[in-house]
Specification:
single chain; 423 residues; alpha/beta; 14 strands; binds 4'-deoxy-4'-aminopyridoxal-5'-phosphate
């Protein structure tokens, strides 16, 4: 009854958790949500004001499909000045959210059966976009160690069309250094593959510096930069994202946009323009608050016994649960989380499935991250995302989003500490 390409696309892993959380809230329980993929801050007032002005000025009609010219121009300036990529407005397409840019890019590039190298764990919608476009994800482990040329060569084939990178990363929080980006660039050039570089968290970065792979050598010819306003300016509901790519790719994506969504919201585009043109103080304030929260949540999670790297960017901690002393979530079978939303297990390459051997927790027993997340919700009323939602390499991990207040983080950690110490 349904199309074959939708068969491989799974529902979100968090749906069951969200339903459980809703039920608990209905019972009057104080549920703390650490699964949010969006800043908990409100959109800064000057951006909202710009949208109101746009409405009052009558900018309430269709606008050009590729975006209002002023915004495309402003984005091109930003990409030239901040990311050091030589582009002009015609390289920019404004979309209803970065997600739509990813989807349109996959639909523009992939033919049935084309392969896309995905670094695992990965944010869930890349895989869905690849599958909806008829492509096939090929997984390569990239959790706490950089990828290199040889690793990518081990999974390449004549069907490989693209590699997807996402730095700063959701869900792990790593930031790719220039050395790693150079390996990817060299590999992409040698094998004539495109790079999709999702840079949506570029401003939510702490000690490190963001480098766009498109700025290296001739990489702008083969890179599709994905970015947007959702995270940097707390504008998730406005639905404005963009892609920056070679003109032929932009023009193909444009056809998809013209015949599907027409354009991103006119009012939101004027708000986005204001966000780029005005003071960036609001961004610095949000990032310094995120840093305070990161420092607190990582310290507390480590105290409790989770194994976690210090994230360099985004607002997530990918916390290993194998080191914890809970017994209720232990498993000896490697298929325990096959019921989770991850569909990557079936398509994992050997380099991915062998990942647990190099994991810092490999000495410890396997834990079922889905069962662990359900236990947290049931016993502490805390919502987290099971790591396996992000691919097989996420088993034994849960993702905490720290888009939550310091008070919520403190209380949440106290609840978890109590639960773990009672086991
Ligand atoms: N890319 C990544 C890596 C994300 O985490 C998200 C949001 N969760 C998006 C893209 C989507 O952003 P948008 O709201 O602009 O569609």
């Amino acid at each position: 009854m349904f199309s074959r390409r939708m068969e491989g696309v799974k529902e979100s892993a968090t749906i069951k958790m969200a339903a459980l959380a809703r039920a608990l809230r209905k019972e009057g329980k104080k549920v703390l949500d650490f699964s949010l993929g969006e800043p908990d801050f409100s959109t800064p007032p000057h951006i909202c004001e710009a949208a109101k002005r746009a409405m009052d000025a009558g900018f309430t009609h269709y606008v050009p499909s590729a975006g209002i010219p002023e915004l495309r121009e402003e984005i091109a300036i930003k990409i030239r000045e901040e990311n050091r990529v030589d582009v002009s407005a015609e390289n920019v397409i404004v979309t209803p959210g970065a997600k739509q840019a990813i989807f349109a890019a996959m639909m523009s590039i992939l033919n049935e059966g084309d392969e896309v190298i995905m670094l695992e764990p990965a944010w869930v919608s890349f895989e869905a976009a690849i599958r909806m476009a008829g492509g096939k994800p090929i997984w390569l482990l990239r959790r706490d160690k950089p990828v290199n040329y040889d690793m990518m060569s081990s999974v390449v084939s004549e069907k490989t069309r693209m590699i997807v990178i996402n730095s700063p990363n959701n869900p792990v929080g790593y930031v790719m250094e220039e050395r790693e980006l150079r390996e990817i660039a060299e590999f992409a050039s040698d094998h004539n593959v495109l790079v999709m570089s999702d840079e949506i968290y570029e401003k939510i970065i702490y000690e490190k510096k963001h480098v766009s792979i498109a700025s290296l050598d001739a990489m702008s010819e083969r890179t599709i930069i994905i970015n947007g306003f959702s995270k940097t300016y707390a504008m998730t509901g406005w639905r404005v994202g963009y892609a920056v790519a070679p003109v032929e790719i932009v023009n193909t994506m444009l056809k998809i946009q013209q015949h599907s969504v027409t354009c991103a919201s006119s009012i939101s585009q004027y708000a986005a323009l204001e966000a780029l043109r005005s003071s960036q103080e609001c961004v610095y304030e949000m990032v310094s608050e995120f840093k305070r929260r990161r420092d607190l949540i990582v310290r507390r999670l480590r105290d409790i016994g989770f194994a976690c790297e210090m994230p360099d960017g985004a607002f997530y901690v990918f916390a290993g649960i194998s080191t914890l002393s809970t017994s209720s979530t232990s498993s000896t079978s490697s298929s325990t989380s096959s019921s989770s939303a991850s569909s990557s297990a079936s398509s994992s390459t050997s380099s991915s499935t062998s990942s647990s051997a190099s994991s810092p927790n490999s000495q410890n027993e396997q834990k079922d991250d889905v069962a662990f997340a359900e236990m947290l919700l049931r016993d502490t009323h805390i919502v987290v995302t099971p790591g396996s939602a992000f691919g097989n390499a996420g088993r034994n991990y849960v993702r905490f989003s720290y888009a939550a207040s310091i008070e919520e983080i403190s209380e949440g950690m106290a609840r978890i500490e109590k639960l773990i110490s009672s086991h």
